[in-house]
Write the structure tokens for this entry.
Amino acid sequence: YPTWKRTLTRRAREAQMKRFCKAQAIQRRLEEIEVTFRELEQKGIKLEKLLRDEDGTPADQKTQWMNQLLYLVQKKNSLMSEESDLMIAVQELKLEEQQWQLDQKLRCYMNREESLKTPEDRAAEQEILVQLLEVVNKRNVLIHIQEEKRLSEL
């Protein structure tokens, strides 16, 4: 087995492991965001009840509660934005994995001698190329979405 093939195989495994670790980190963060959402929701409910029920409270206390409520809404919005970014990252990881798998299949067909390829092999190779282009286009769309989101946040 030539050294370059071993190197390529090792690098492919490393890239796959990186994608896996990144996916796990994203999943953990999404779960943390979900817990934080619930906590913010509970705090918001308490503040709303305080604002509605306390008619005899001083105005400065009501203002403080209102500011706390607005802060909770702002924090929830920033978490929603982060969650959206993470969901895009998940899609990107899925597409990277799909692209890697298609690339491996394509390499198998391309490594064969042209004279040994059957018409079915050539058709399969073309189909894989089409699928690969679709995946690359989907990744491109995700990049555009991220860029538009970043620009709108600025």
